[in-house]
Amino acid sequence: MQDRVTLKQLRSFGLLVGGVFVLIGLWPVVFRGQTLRGWALLAAGLLVLPAVVLPKTLKPIYRVWMAAGHVLGWINTRIILSVVFYIVFTPSGLIMRLFGKDPMRRGSEPAADTYRVNRHPRPGSHLKQQF
Question: Coil, helix or strand for 79?
């Protein structure tokens, strides 16, 4: 984690997270006709006011917030990668095996002299319009 935290980062943190808490606090009133969420507005005030007046006071809260974010990011990364691996790659690999598809051509050919695939050079004109 970063050792030096600037006043701009602390101010941005306080205003951004405080703004989100304002939205959470006002959401039931605006969209559902219910009462305010006082706890969210209190949290917003405790973040926005110091962000505007004295951002240095937000440093401990910022550090805890960032540490929690790093932990949650580490956990979410493992979950998302596991889901993608077991829902996308594993079934596609099994289907390819079932149909005998081998895109890397890993099968052995005892009668072959070499496994090298000869490539023919392309003309330099293929680089003129790359996109």
Answer: helix
Q: What is the pTM of this model?
A: 0.64
Bin 125: left if φ > 0, else alpha if -120 < ψ < 50, else beta. alpha
Residue 89 three-state SS: helix
123: helix, coil or strand? coil
Distance of alpha carbon 15 from alpha carbon 17, whole angstroms: 6
Render each residue's pLDDT in the chain as its tens digit; 131 residues.
Answer: 557 899 999 999 999 999 999 999 999 999 998 999 999 999 999 999 999 999 999 999 999 999 999 999 999 999 999 999 999 999 999 999 999 998 888 888 888 888 888 889 988 888 888 87
Measured N-to-C along each axis, helices 38-53 and 7-27 cross at an angle, to the nearest 10 degrees, of: 160
- What is the DSSP secondary-structure string of 14-78? HHHHHHHHHHHHHHIIIII-----HHHHHHHHHHHHHHHH-GGGGHHHHHHHHHHHHHHHHHHHH
Q: How far is CA 26 from CA 30, 50, 97, in A?
A: 6, 21, 55
Contact assessment for residue 57 and residue 44, using Cβ atoms and an 8 Å cutoff: no
